[in-house]
Each structure stands twice: as structure tokens, then as C-alpha cells.
Batch of 4 targets.
Target 1
Amino acid sequence: MRRRLAALAVLPIFALSTNAFAGPSDPVGDLIMSVITGDLPAGPGWNLKATLYHAGAKGVGALDSLGCKVVAMRTVAVDRNLIPKRTVLFIKETVGLKMPDGTAHDGYWYASDVGGGIKGKRIDLYTGAGSRSMGSMRALNLASLTAVKVGEFKGCPPN
């Protein structure tokens, strides 16, 4: 990362706009470059309140409302009247949170679930298996998250 930032100092400005250093396998680098260039994800956005859910809690199954396997730190339940199912959301406050595999979260979530209590500007973030999976999420201010629609997906969300 230090080399990447040092290289930025000597490159012409046009190189920054091409996102030359952040490839598809570097979502955190993409985010850093988008902040540097002012090219943040765009699309409809919402200020939302969030709750957390996990496998093992009452009423939580292994599949989302699309019939796909729920994915820890990726699946989000939404009110489909506000946010359509199959929407890819970028939630900036989740960038850097610890993922189940130990890597840093890139902020991307997949609206593939709904819930009876999810109405209006509320979302429910799936954290994984058991209540202990919510540990890394406790640092979030769940009363105020910013979500931006950055795309749509077909089939099931990626693992």
C-alpha cells in the first residue's frame, strides 16, 4: 500500500482517473482510489436503521427469500418496497469490518432477503452462525447507516 501511495505522487493526474492501481481483486484499494479521485459509488441512496440477525436465532433459516444460501456479512434483508431484491448495496460504515475469514469487509452487501419486521428505512444484516458472529458489527452505529445502490445481481449472491 505504501508503494501504491508513493507511486501516486509521481504519476500524472490522468492516471488516477483510470484507477490504474486497483484491480478487480482489490476492493479496498478500489475504495481508496475512489475516495482519492472523488469517484465514490453512485446511485439511489438511503439513510437506514439496521438490526443484525444470525443463524440459530428464532425464525432464521439457511436460505434467503430467493432460495439462496444466506452469506455471512453479505446478505441483507430489506423492505422490497424501498430497496428491490437483487440490489447490490454499498454500506460505507461496514468497510474494514472483520469478515469471517479474517479479511476486511469491502462494504458490499446483497439484498436477497426480506423479513416481517423490515419495513421502510430499515435493513437487517446477516452476520453468520450464532450470536458470537455479531461481535465485529457491534462497533457500528446501527441507528444510522448509509446505503447506496451500486448495481444488481442475477442468481444467488456471491460467497
Target 2
Amino acid sequence: MLRRGLALGGGLLLLILIVLGVKGCLDARANRKLSDYARNVTQIVEETHQTSASFFKLLEEPGSGSVTDFVDQVEADRSAVDSEASRIDGLSAPGDMSRAQSNLELTYQLRASAMDKIAEKTDDALGNAGAEKATEVIARQMQKLLAADVIYEQVVRPEVDAVLADNGISDSDLPKSTFLPDEKWLDPTTVSDALGAVSGGESSVSGVHGTEIAGVAVNGTELIEGAPTTIAGAEGVEVEVSVRNPLESTENGVGVSVTYEGTTVTGEIDELPAGETVSAVIPLTPAPKGEVTIEVEVEPVPGEEVLENNEASYTLSIE
């Protein structure tokens, strides 16, 4: 009986040691995954800091390079942020990191979205036409960069560091990450001044650029300047503006506006290839009634010199 008791006790002790050993291995494995996750995030965050430094140094000190060089560098920084965002999305969040990972992905989605828009509008902001509007868009994207910084600092870092601390990991805390170095960049004037220093603010567009109004129709009825047109408007009023690109360069983001009774409504043609005509359909809300004059305008594209054919005025009688 004694021998049997000793054997049973020995077996139970061995089982306990095996369980403890397995648990220790699993805990160590889980901790390694957490440490690896924090290390991967840290590496991407540090690369993002370098991208931010490159971009804002370019704004602060554009140097004597050409406008094309400036635009290309902005595009390179945009591409870098897009790549960093993709790598963040590809991370596998271990244990309790899923919530922190979701907020981290949001941080980088905001950064990538802002840089995409900034890169898209930089060429316009450096041109002669539409520069003010493009600069305002860029300043608004700076607000998005600021929002991403707040999410990272106030949500992501505390969540990640808390999970690490709960698992006894004290040497893998995330670094700070501030993409927007100074809130002065939220001011369109600051952005405009910075871009104005790029090779004297000369336009970077090449080739011959221009658009013209090819025709305007309301509810399917073609309008003629100087000839009042009667329109049935019981079910609403919709203006279709046909814009032609008679020259040799594809235009992107061509703005179209219709003004009536003190109200302006806008539309946009995403792409207008050379030699083609594309229409923008603009519903008038609120719908006018009775006799009304509408003024149609196509916003000048960068590099456009002839503007007389970008505007037209029509008189309608809406029944």
C-alpha cells in the first residue's frame, strides 16, 4: 500500500509538473507574440516619423528644385504612408490586442487618406488656376493628420502598453508618433506661403490646357443663350452641363457650377480626356420656379489661358 501510495503521489506530482511546464511554454509563447507585435508596430511607427520629417521639411525648405521635383517628392512621401498603412493592416494582433489594432488601423487610414488628397491637390495648389481652393483642401487634410495623432497618442499607445503590462512585459512600450509637427499647418495661409516658395510658385503643368462649355440642357431641353426657354419643372430641375476638352492634355477634377437666385450648386467631372466631351449633371435644390436666370461656369484648369468660353448665362421659364 505504501509503495502504491508513493507511486500514485509521484505520478500526480509528475502530472502537475507537466501541466505547469506546458502552461509556462504557452505563456512564454504568448508573450513572445506580444513582444513581436509591439516591435513590429514600433518599426513602422519609426519609419512613419521619418516620412513625416521628410514631408514637412520639404514644405519648410523647398529649396531651389523644380516644381516637378517638389511634386514628385510629395508623391514619394504619400506612397510611403500608403505602404506603412498596408503593413499596419497586415499585422496579426495577438491576445487582447485586437481593439488596439483596430484603432491603430484607423490612425493609419486617416494618415494615408490625408496624404493621398494632399498629393492629389499639390499640383493644383502650385498652379495659376484653382490654387486657392486646392490650398484650402490641403489645409483640411492637415486636420485629418492631427486627428490621427490624437487617436494614436490618446488611445492606441495606452491600450497597447496596458496589454503589455498586464502580461508582465515592460520593455516593449510603443514610442510616441506625431505626424503633424506643428498646428500652424492647419492654417491655409501657412500652407499657401510654403507652396509659394516652390520655384517662385510657377505652374508645373505642361502641354496645352483648356476646356469649354459644349452645351447646356435642363430636364433634357437644350438651352440657347439669349433665347428664353420654357421648362416643365414639376418633378424638379436638373441641369446637364456638357464640357469639351478641345486641346491636348487630359484634365482631372474639372469643377462645374450653376448659380441661380443667389444659390450656387456644384458638380465635378473626374476625368476629361483630350478631344472628348463629358457631362456633369447638377440638380438644382431648391428647385426654382417662374422666370429665372442661371449662370453656368466651368472652373479653369491649371494652365488654362482662354476663359471666355467657360461661362454662359440662360433665361428659363419654369412651369
Target 3
Amino acid sequence: MHDIKHISKGLVPHGVSACAGCGMELIIRNVMDVLGEDTIIVIPPGCSALFSGYGEETALKIPGFQGNLENTAACAAGIRAALNAKGNTHTTVVGFAGDGATVDIGLQSLSGAIERRDKILYICYDNEAYMNTGIQGSSSTPFMASTTTTPTGKRTGRKDLMQIVIAHDIPYAATASIHNLTDLRRKVQKAKETDGPSLLHIHTPCPTGWRYDPSKTIELAKAAVQTGCWVLYEYENEKVTINSKPKELKPLEDYIKIQGRFKGLSAEQRQELQEYTKTSYEKYIKKLESMA
């Protein structure tokens, strides 16, 4: 992991009860450090609701509220409109939601906000299932991963959030990973400065849902990129830039061997998943290169 200077603003206090090794906590601390105090945040129910708090308590030192699972982007757009009406064009409005609240339940309101060109920053921390409510599968759950609703492994691939928002001609969108915080923070800054809607799709390993040793979070995040399970790229000015492209993919086993959600796969299924991942990666890279 790249060295990052001490996060000094203190917009996210210590002592938040996220799971040990939680990738989402690392994301929100770095995001808030880049965005700064002049920020309003909308958080739906989910793991990140730990930070919006409850009652009179909160774990964030900026204004914000917890909306519903389906309307994060709509709420952010409403705040943006109110600020604009008051002549405030400097405050950043950010939605911070998981994959279930983004690629599934919240996709309609997100699509609307992008289509209207509302100047909001939308961040999807993707831990690849509904982790807060029992590890149910989402449309972002990868092929063959076990969840409580796909106990024998999901039989379809994941939904491509980035290509969906690119189809809306969004001004700026990027994927990111917690194994490269320098890249993540750079993309947060670019998204903040975008004149219009922007989106960050951040891969977020989850020790609880993926069933692995919490000390392996960064190692897993890096392995996802090295094995072709997660691609780092950004879309800006109608062009794609691939930020990381391994010369040769590492074996998929490097990524899945320490995850309990793939433990039940037979040798034949592991080989099938390896071939699926390699083929999907090569096809995806070719598509992105055509958009460069």
C-alpha cells in the first residue's frame, strides 16, 4: 500500500465499530480527508450507516443524513438544487453507498441524477453483497461466489456499473481500489472538481462476508487487480484511461484461495472460474482500449 500522510482533518473520529479489516472504513477516511469540511454527505442504510450514526450521535464531523436505500442520488440531487438556489456552488455533495444500494436498489435514482447532470459525487464502495443484512447476493456479487442467497455459488457474472454510467455520458467516472490509496485519492479530487455528476466505483474487500483473515484486506485488494478480477480505469472527456494493466495475470487461486466464499468450489469449478476470469478480463481490456 502506498504511504499516505497522516489524515489531519479528523472528519471521521476513531472508535467507529466497523468490522476488523473493513475496507469501507479506510475508504471513507481517505475520501473525507480529500473532500474536506465543505461537504454534505448522504448515506443510505448499510455498512456505512455506522458513520451516519443514529439518534443524536454521528461519526462524521460534516453535515449529512441517512436516507433510504433507493434514493441516495435523489437526496444528493435535492441538496445540490437547494444549495444552488442559495448561490452556493462550492459545497461538495456526496452520496456514499454500497453495491446493493447502487447497482440494485438505487440504480434508478442514480440514473436520473446523471441524466439531469446534477453536480453530485457518487461513491459506491463495492463489497460484492448485502453485507449489513446477512451477506445476501447482489448483482455485484461475482460469478461462483457463495452468499446466503447463493449458497452453492452465484451462476451469473456481476453487473457492470461503470459501463452503465458511461452510457449516460457521465463527465467523470473511475474505478479504484484500497490497495492504491494514492490513485484513489487522486480520483476523489478529480471527481470533486468535475463540473457535473461524477462516480467512483471502489473495490472493497469484506472480511465478514468474504470469510478471510482481516489482516489480508490490502493483500486481497491488490490480488484482485493482479488476477484480472478488478480493473483500474477512468472515463473522462469521453475517453478511457486504463490505470493498471498487468503484463501477465497472476493465477486466480492467488485471490480466491483464502476466501471462504469460494471454499466449496471443486477443482473443475476452480478451473472454470479461472478460464471465465481470464476471458472476461481480456474481452474487457480490449473494449476499454477501443474507448481510449
Target 4
Amino acid sequence: MKTVIKNVLEAIAQNSVEQAQAALKAAIPVIEKTAVKGAIHKKNASRNVSRLTKRVNALASSMQ
């Protein structure tokens, strides 16, 4: 889970909208699966997804 989150953050740091969106699409199922298995709390997973989505959307809107 940490790796996919790091991939999203690296794509955001590189200002690559397409790469960040693709990394986010790959990260969401991994984060949710981690919560379902009980490794993290479901609200923690939701918070992570929400924060990453917010950052990717902000990057996309700043590029337009």
C-alpha cells in the first residue's frame, strides 16, 4: 500500500496529470483491499483515498 501511495505522490511531484491519474486508479483498489483485510481501518483507507484524489484533482485543475 505504501508503494502505490508513493507512486501517486511521485507523479504529482513531477506535475504529470495523466501519470498521476493512472497511479491513483491503481492505488484505490489496493488501499481498499488493505482495509478489507483489516490491516488498516476503513476510515483510514477512505481518508487516504480522499486526500490523494484531492491532490490529483488540484493538479489537473491547475494544468488547465
